[in-house]
């Protein structure tokens, strides 16, 4: 198979982790006789530094011309502490999501048994958890109109959804539920928000077309609680952009660490694959970041964008073996971890490659 992949390392730990995602793609290409070609582009703070634009035109052009995109992370501490900054790294990510029509963000909560003790939650609560989040990605308060009064003392972000936006992601979530556990939980705040009442109405109507899927509706506050109380009760979770952003960070603790979660953003065209973690400037450049989320993002790319299921499984198996043999990055190490097996980013990436090579 011939594919052209754009790598956008981004900011902070992004470049360190995407290096390993790319290395794994190269190894898979060699083993399975695929021809993967690569290009690289700037986004976020890196884009601002080079061109003044968090999503340089060239990056967008390259993105549209590629078959899939591997992205690292975005953000810089400088902007986090400066709410008045007009140009912000995150604008690059939001713009590329909108421009590429990436309306569905899939975030699987995959649990490696070996990491049950790495979570702050009890292993017996976690064991057996397998959740697939469908987070809407191009609507909501993220993209609704923003205002600030002249005296700067009043601000608003419009929470807005159109029927078609809810419909298209709900369809994808129902279809996924049909081939998984056949349960779908739609999360909203319909007891308060009009946009959530539209959301619920649309999901209720669609549910009739999927009688084989057991559909449930849950308020976001309750869902946030249920997720840590009994995560096993969830199969597919469908939710809006902001709720999904928050819930999936919470859910990452089920998998032991933010450093373990990959995501796929899909929609009208090129798929976009990235860890759910941020740029983690506190550890950037120190060889401490966990590269597994980037490597797992590559597995999602192979499976979802290219339909290469065996290749994707080969990667998750290699990670499984790496963990089974006791290797950990700092974020997923626990009191029982052999100190000699706590690895940096590079060594962890190398280990996965070794297991991939068999
Ligand atoms: C995510 C991130 C982004 C979001 C930020 C960096 C804009 O938190 O992908 O979850 O809020 O969508
Ligand atoms: Mg987030």
Notable features of this structure?
binds 3-isopropylmalic acid; Isopropylmalate Dehydrogenase; 19% strand; alpha/beta; binds magnesium ion; 10-stranded mixed sheet; 358 residues; 2 domains; globular; 14 strands; two-stranded antiparallel sheet; 13 helices
Record the strand order, biggest sheet.
Answer: 2-1-3-12-11-4-5-10-8-9
Q: Please tell me how large the radius of gyration is.
A: 20 Å
- Tell me the number of structural domains: 2
Strand content: 15-25%
CATH topology of the largest domain: Isopropylmalate Dehydrogenase
Query: How many DSSP H or I helices?
Result: 13
Number of distinct beta strands: 14
- Determine and state the CATH class of the largest domain: Alpha Beta
Subcellular location: Cytoplasm
Site (Important for catalysis): 142, 189
Pfam family, one: Iso_dh
Binding site for Mg(2+): 221, 245, 249
Q: Could you characterize the architecture of this molecule?
A:
The chain has two domains: 1-105 and 261-358, Isopropylmalate Dehydrogenase (3-Layer(aba) Sandwich), CATH 3.40.718.10; 120-255, 3-Layer(aba) Sandwich (Isopropylmalate Dehydrogenase). Helix 1 packs parallel to helix 13, helix 7 crosses helix 8 and helix 9 packs parallel to helix 10. The two termini are 22 Å apart. The longest helix is centred in the first third of the chain and has 19 residues, at 14-32. It contains 13 helices and 14 strands. It is globular. With 358 residues, the protein is an alpha/beta fold. This is 3-isopropylmalate dehydrogenase.
């Amino acid at each position: 198979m011939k594919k052209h992949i754009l790598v956008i390392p981004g900011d902070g730990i992004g470049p360190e982790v995407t290096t390993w995602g790319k290395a794994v793609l190269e190894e898979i290409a060699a083993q399975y006789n695929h021809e993967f070609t690569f290009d690289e582009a700037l986004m976020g703070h890196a884009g601002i530094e080079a061109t003044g634009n968090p999503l340089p035109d060239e990056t967008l052009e390259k993105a549209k011309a590629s078959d899939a995109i591997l992205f690292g992370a975005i953000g810089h501490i400088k902007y986090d502490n400066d709410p008045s900054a007009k140009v912000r790294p995150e604008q690059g990510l939001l713009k590329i999501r909108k421009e590429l029509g990436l309306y569905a963000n899939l975030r699987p909560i995959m649990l490696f048994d070996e990491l049950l003790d790495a979570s702050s939650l009890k292993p017996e609560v976690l064991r057996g958890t397998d959740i697939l989040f469908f987070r809407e990605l191009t609507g909501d308060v993220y993209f609704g109109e923003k205002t600030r009064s002249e005296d700067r003392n009043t601000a608003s972000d419009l929470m807005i959804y159109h029927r078609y936006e809810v419909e298209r992601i709900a369809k994808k979530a129902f279809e996924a539920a049909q081939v998984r556990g056949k349960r779908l939980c739609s999360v909203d705040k319909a007891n308060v928000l009009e946009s959530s009442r539209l959301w619920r109405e649309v999901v209720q109507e669609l549910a009739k077309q999927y009688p084989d899927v057991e559909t449930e509706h849950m308020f976001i506050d309750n869902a946030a609680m249920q997720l840590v109380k009994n995560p096993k009760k969830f199969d597919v979770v469908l939710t809006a952009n902001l709720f999904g952003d928050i819930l999936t960070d919470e859910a990452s603790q089920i998998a032991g660490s933010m450093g373990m979660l990959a995501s796929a953003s899909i929609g009208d065209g090129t798929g976009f694959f990235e860890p759910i973690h941020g740029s983690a400037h506190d550890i950037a450049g120190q060889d401490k970041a966990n590269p597994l989320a980037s490597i797992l993002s590559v597995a999602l790319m192979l499976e979802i964008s290219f339909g290469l299921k065996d290749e994707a499984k080969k990667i998750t198996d290699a990670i499984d073996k790496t963990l089974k043999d006791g290797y950990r990055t700092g974020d997923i190490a626990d009191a029982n971890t052999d100190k000699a097996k706590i690895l940096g980013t590079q060594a962890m990436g190398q280990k996965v490659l070794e297991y991939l090579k068999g």
